[in-house]
Amino acid sequence: MAMSHVRSVRSHIVGNEAVGLVFRRAFAAAGGKAKKGSKGGAAGDAPKASILSKEVKSTTVVGANILKDGADPKVLADSEYPDWLFHLLDKRPALSELRRKNVETLPYEDLKRFVKLDNRARIKENNSIKAKN
Known about the structure:
GO molecular function: structural constituent of ribosome
Subcellular location: Mitochondrion
Protein name: Large ribosomal subunit protein mL54
Oligomer: single chain
Family: Belongs to the mitochondrion-specific ribosomal protein mL54 family.
Radius of gyration: 30 Å
InterPro entries: Ribosomal_mL54
Structural class: alpha+beta
């Protein structure tokens, strides 16, 4: 489908004074005519105010429903969730911090992280050396 375009030159005259020339390029819509008064969707992209009450927001997980006929799940008490869930956002040590510590005294989880991050750093270094050659 070929898209046709129209170039037009318009001059705006305000109070008997020419303000300037404006070059405009418009593409034909699939139906043949472009919408009048359309500004490129800028007004439709603006965030809209929430219509949900604060009570509904605090008791349900809004937007978590993935089923066509389902409903948003309710927020449960903290005791209803597994313990590991609350540790997902805990800060984990960086590679530089792990290198400063004694490897033999690291806990198992930190040791696994150290090996993974160290391997990743070595691979990146080797790839950069190969790229230079």
